[in-house]
Amino acid sequence: MRHLRKFLDSNNSFALMAGPCSVESEHQMRDILEHPSIGALVRGGIFKMRTRPDTFQGLGESGIEIIKELKKEFDFDFITEISDPRQLEVLDSVTDMYQIGTRNMYNYELLKEINKYEKPVLLKRGFSATIDEWLGAASYFSNLKNNEIILCERGVRSFDNKLRNMLDLGSVIYLKKNSPYKVVVDPSHSMGHAKYVREASYAALCAGADGLLIETHPTPQAALSDKDQALSLEEFQELSNTVKELLSVFNKELFTHNQDLLGKNNKELYTNA
Ligand code: PEP
Ligand code: MN
């Protein structure tokens, strides 16, 4: 948890949390972890909340084994969604921050159980939640310090259906001025298509977000969930480069590209640079 802790304690760093919608195989995760653009904060779904039961539900316990093995080899902090208190015990060994998905923001009994574990949380906005309801959900984490709670704007349901969700950057501006929490944006689930992720990311940065949660995949078209919105690793690299340039305007640093914070997976690349 040392990377995440540094980010939570910092005031001016911007984090890129990247990884696949779902952990699919060791090979897939290895390709991601080995890529130079991937920093120390990695996301990946193990128990998936899918709209239909006949679609890929995540690897479950075998996904946990994959992350456990890769953690011996690569130095990264792992963020994954928890959807049921029964997953807490098994997820605890590989999770550095629990993600609470949009469907579970209102699941107060789940929030109370997670609170007992005293681990940082990334609380996604319910897709029809008001800002007050979202902050109300955050207040369930009474065992956590304010800087251990990250709010994640991931778009809300609107009257329009052109995009997957409506990205509410107003909420980011509001929360940065009126709440004590870090706020990150998930441009992937907001926009629903990879071709819109870059612009949404840059706009989020300019709105004052503290980071981005972005779906990336070595071969997006082969992804078992959310394939349309996943960036390839090359696309993600390009995005990171622009993010880095934009951050200099705001006197902020890109957390994941801080050499000291890079995992050993990237050490060689950066020491040779
Ligand atoms: C996810 O991050 O993979 C996810 C399911 O997100 P959300 O809960 O925002 O739909
Ligand atoms: Mn997804």
State the end-to-end distance: 27 Å
SSE topology string = HEHEHEHEHEHEHEHHEHEH
- Give the fraction of residues assigned to helices: 25-40%
Alpha-beta content class: alpha/beta
The count of DSSP E runs of length 2 or more, i.e. the number of strands, is: 9
Low-pLDDT regions: 258-273
Tell me, what's the shape?
Answer: globular
Profile the largest sheet: 9 strands, parallel
Note down, in words, how this protein is organized:
- The chain has helices at about 1-10, 25-35, 60-75, 90, 110-115, 130-140, 170-180, 185-190, 195-205, 235-250, 265-270, and strands at about 15-20, 40-45, 75-80, 95-100, 120-125, 150-155, 180-185, 210-215, 255.
- A 9-stranded parallel β-sheet has the order 2-3-4-5-6-7-8-1-9, sandwiched between helices.
- Helix content is about 35%, strand content about 15%.
- The longest helix has 17 residues, at about 235-250.
- Helix 3 (about 60-75) links the parallel strand 2 (about 40-45) and strand 3 (about 75-80).
- With about 270 residues, it is α/β, with parallel strands linked by helices.
- The model is unreliable at about 260-273 (pLDDT under 50).
- It has 11 helices and 9 strands.
- Helix 9 (about 195-205) packs parallel to helix 10 (about 235-250).
- It binds phosphoenolpyruvate (PEP) and manganese (II) ion (MN).
- Phosphoenolpyruvate binds near residues 21 and 186.
